[in-house]
Amino acid sequence: MKNSSIFVMTILSMKRFLADIVTLFNLFLGCTALIFAGYQQFIPAFWLLFAAGWADFLDGMVARAVGSNSSLGVQLDSLADMVSFGVVPGMIMVQLLGIGLDLSPGFNWTLLGFTITVFSCIRLAIFNVKDSGSQDFSGLPTPSSTGLVAGWGLAYAHHPELSWMVHPVTLIGITLLVSVLMVSRLPMVGMKFKNWRWQGNAIRYVLIATGIILLIILKEWAFSALIAAYITLSAVLFLIRPGTAKKVQDQ
């Protein structure tokens, strides 16, 4: 009986660390993806990042479910994101540029790919120093920028004959686009659910449905296309009704 009580108390005490465990799993997946990216294995790198994205999505929900919202968890989340959604997409772009320029990664133009890493760091730092009570959500989230870059690598891995995909102009254009968007003031539709009701989450559900449709139709092209659609939708909402994107964030 005493042993059972100790076991139950141990489980209950560990409950508050569940969200941190999910966050650290995100970090582990990102580190593993980095190895594959370094060897130009873009397909496994993508799927590891895809899993890391789900871990990043779920850690906040787990924290709310178990009533854990520690400052340590916030810092762990940011540090894990820096690896999975900062360092890894930068490495993917470095490798893609190496293919396009026919150069081995080193002290050459391929290092421009790490511009994504630098701007991801800036993005996460800006987010960290914001007032915790602020509902502002502007700029492209790092998981989304990673989805665009890693999705591009996935598509190229399936179609290596398409040399235009690794042309330096194409890749530098993508690098500059995601880097600028990450630190821009463009209001973006927040994708983290606070509840599962249709009201207040309609746009999020539409984006998820769009993603499923794109996946069926476009297959390996779907992921980069979905992020492009996400950026376009957020921009259109802002241009049509400047307050709409922020209302979606607040709900």
The gyration radius over C-alpha positions equals: 19 Å
The CATH C-level name of the domain at 17-186 is Mainly Alpha
User: How many strand units?
Assistant: 0
The fraction of residues assigned to DSSP E strands is under 5%
Mean pLDDT reading: 83
The CATH superfamily of the domain at 17-186 bears the name: CDP-alcohol phosphotransferase transmembrane (TM) domain
What is the level-2 CATH architecture name of the domain at 17-186? Up-down Bundle
| Shape assignment | globular
Element pattern in H and E: HHHHHHHHHH
Residue share in helix: over 70%
According to CATH, the fold-level topology of the domain at 17-186 is Four Helix Bundle (Hemerythrin (Met), subunit A)
User: Which structural class matches the secondary elements?
Assistant: mainly alpha
Distance between the termini: 47 Å
Count of helix runs: 10
Q: Which blocks of ≥5 consecutive residues have pLDDT under 50?
A: 6-12, 132-136, 245-251
